[in-house]
Amino acid sequence: MPPWHDWLEQQGIAVLGAPARLPSEEDIDKAEARLKVRFPASYRRFCTELGPGRLGDLLEFWVPWPVKGFFDVPRDLRARLSVVKDASGGGRQAVTEKAIQIGYVVLGGAPIPRVISNRSAELLLLPSEPTEGDECALYALDHRTSAAPPRLVKLARSFPSLIQEGFAAKRLCKLPFVAAPGADQFGMEYHPRELPAP
C-alpha cells in the first residue's frame, strides 16, 4: 500500500493542510501496551503519516498522543457495551471483548462542520473480530434512542475499506444509520487536526 497521503489522493480525497506534530511508533506502542491490543498496521500507518482529523464531515479519527489529559486517545469502551442491539444481522446482545474507540461517526444537521455531540456515534475497532491479515471489523455505536439499548452497526471489514468503500464509494450513505446524508458529509477532503504540544 502506498503512503496514506498518496492513497487518499488516488481515491480522489484531497488532504487539506498538514499537522505540525504526528505520533511516533513509540506513542502507538505505548497506547497498545495500555490497551493490551495490537492495532492494524493500516491504522498505525494512518496515525504516523496523517494524524488525527476529519474525513469529509462524517468520520473523525483519533490517534494515540502522550499529552496527559488529552481527550482524543483510543480507549476501550467495552464496559459501556454490556447491553447492545446488534443492528448488523447478528445475534450479539453484548460486547464482552475489547472495543477500541478510534474516533466518531459525526451525525446530525448543521452547523457545518458538524460538532461532535450525543447524536454522534463512537467509531470502534473490534480486535476480537479479525477479517484479513491483521485487520479487524469496524463498528459504530448508535445511541440516539434513549429508551433502547445502543445499536451496534457494522461499518467495514477493515480500516482501508472503511475509507475506500464506505466513504469514497459512499457505501455508508446506504445505511439507515447515516440517514439523509448531506453532500458535505461525503466531501472528498481530509482535514488534519493539530495535536497539542507534548
Number of domains: 1
CATH top level class name: Alpha Beta
Unreliable residue stretches: none
Category from helices, strands and their pairing: alpha+beta
* Largest sheet: number of strands, sense, barrel closure: 10 strands, mixed
Radius of gyration: 16 Å
Oligomer: single chain
Strand content: 15-25%
Number of strands: 10
Q: How many H/I helices?
A: 4
CATH topology: SMI1/KNR4-like
Protein name: Knr4/Smi1-like domain-containing protein
Domain Knr4/Smi1-like: 23-74
InterPro entries: Knr4/Smi1-like_dom, Knr4/Smi1-like_sf
Pfam families: SMI1_KNR4
Characterization of this structure:
The structure is a single chain. Strand 7 (121-130) and strand 8 (136-142) form a beta hairpin. The protein has a single domain, classed as SMI1/KNR4-like. The two termini are 30 Å apart. It has four helices and ten strands. With 198 residues, the chain is an alpha+beta fold. Strands 1, 2, 3, 4, 5, 6, 7, 8, 9 and 10 form a ten-stranded mixed β-sheet that branches.
In a nutshell, what does this entry contain?
Residues 23-74 form the Knr4/Smi1-like domain. The protein is α+β, with helices and mostly antiparallel strands.
Summarize the SSE layout with pairings.
Layout: H1 4-10, E1 14-15, H2 25-35, H3 41-49, E2 53-55, E3 59-61, E4 75-76, E5 85-86, E6 100-105, E7 121-130, E8 136-142, E9 151-156, H4 159-168, E10 189-192
Parallel strand pairs: 1-10, 5-9
Antiparallel strand pairs: 2-3, 2-10, 3-6, 4-6, 6-7, 7-8, 8-9
List its traits:
single chain; 198 residues; alpha+beta; SMI1/KNR4-like; ten-stranded mixed beta sheet; 4 helices; 19% helix; globular
